[in-house]
Amino acid sequence: MTPTRGGDAGSQDPDRDSIERIRQVLIRAVERHCPPALAAHREDLVQMAVLRLLERPRSEGSAPRGASYLWRVAYTVVIDEIRRFRRQQRQTEQLPGDEGGTPGPEVRSELLECLGALQDRRRTAVTLHLQGFRMGEVAAALGWSEKQAENLVYRGLADLRACLEGGNT
Amino acid sequence: MSEPSDDLERRFRAALPDRDDPECPTADAYWAAAAGELPFERVRTLVDHGATCARCAEAWRILADVRRAAAEARAEVSDPRPLQSLVGDAPARFPMRTRTLLPLALSAMAAVGLWVVLRPPAIRPPPVERGSGNASTVRAESAEVQRAGDAVLRWSEVPGASSYNVTILTPDLVVVHQSVGLSGREFRLPESVRQRAAGTGLLWNVDAVMPDGRTVASPTFELRLGAGP
């Protein structure tokens, strides 16, 4: 029986400064990564998430309570809030996929097909890298050394480019 | 490292289909993956999903930002900044008030030297076991591979625990069963769960509930069900 690898632990109680800092980070992240139609509501979304965060009973979930736990819960509530917001928007507007920005099927399939064709470890490392994870973060998520992660990302990116170039010729 | 793949990042983000997928993993599963709490196969499944779903890709990118900010916040807590700023200021003032500041600067340097030797390990996204971080972490005591017909989950005792909660998940991190308030340290898999797990395996974890309401959480364990009644 092998336990999986460990995660975060924290040691501090939340305070007003921590909450405010988390709020600012979430607002910036939503603004940076969400489509404009949704990012326009970032203040409201994050405010709702922070309220939910503060309303959570202290006995909920698992130990430990601390700074890391607070960031984790903040992340999960804001993603939940974004999902809820989209569901509500869809129900009221009856406009599926209205945020736009998705390209034609040719472009989409070519890159994703090449990505999907990569060897497992390289694909996972490259995908995390393309999602904005740094080498140390890729390594931490996958339980590898930073050197291993770097190697797999480099090789995976090279494979991806080769596949794309091959497809274009 | 990021510059050479900027174009690929843009193309990747633009290529993701924007769809409303009710099977999207939970945000907490993404956090657990990024925190190194899950085995590679589970992380791979979650990452692959993010490569087929614009909304989950968005969740991954927000996750990267949030975890980075959390790590910076932790680093600041452990950073003895006043001491560093004192040392940083010393050279500029040295020529003007040498006699008063020299002993101070020397003391500061000695303190820095002492700090370098005795400082606690740097705080990183740590390979810390899920749980309280102390010795009372829950361990699995049942086999990882069991016959489907009589599969039982067993775990080690947490001293002082008043009860245990067991959560069973699919490899895609969908919760299929939860039992709370168990007084014993074993749990027999219900028939419905065994059927659902056939051929795919399961994940499970245990929360030990302490009398004061705190919980001590186990890591996540794997269970594979072999052939048999």
How would you describe the overall organization of this protein?
The complex is a heterodimer of chains A (169) and B (229). Chain A is mainly alpha-helical and 169 residues long. Chain A has two domains: 16-93, no CATH class; 105-168, Winged helix-like DNA-binding domain superfamily/Winged helix DNA-binding domain (Arc Repressor Mutant, subunit A). Chain A has helices at 16-33, 36-39, 42-55, 67-93, 105-116, 120-130, 135-142, 146-168. Chain A is globular. The N and C termini of chain A lie far apart (50 Å). By secondary structure, chain B is of the alpha+beta class. The relative contact order of chain B is 0.12. Chain B folds into three domains: 3-76, no CATH class; 81-118; 145-226, Immunoglobulins (Immunoglobulin-like). The model of chain B is unreliable at 81-96 and 123-135 (pLDDT under 50). Chain B is built from seven helices and eight strands. Chain B is flat and about 80 Å long. The chains are: A mainly alpha (169), B alpha+beta (229). Chains A and B meet through helix 1, helix 4, helix 5, helix 6 and helix 7 of A and helix 1, helix 2, helix 3, helix 4 and strand 7 of B.
Could you outline the blueprint of secondary structure elements for this entry?
The complex is a heterodimer of chains A (169) and B (229).
Chain A: H1 16-33, H2 36-39, H3 42-55, H4 67-93, H5 105-116, H6 120-130, H7 135-142, H8 146-168
Chain B: H1 6-15, H2 27-34, H3 40-50, H4 54-78, H5 81-93, H6 98-118, E1 145-147, E2 152-154, E3 163-169, E4 175-182, E5 186-188, H7 191-197, E6 202-209, E7 215-217, E8 221-226
Parallel strand pairs in B: 1-8
Antiparallel strand pairs in B: 2-5, 3-4, 3-6, 6-7, 6-8
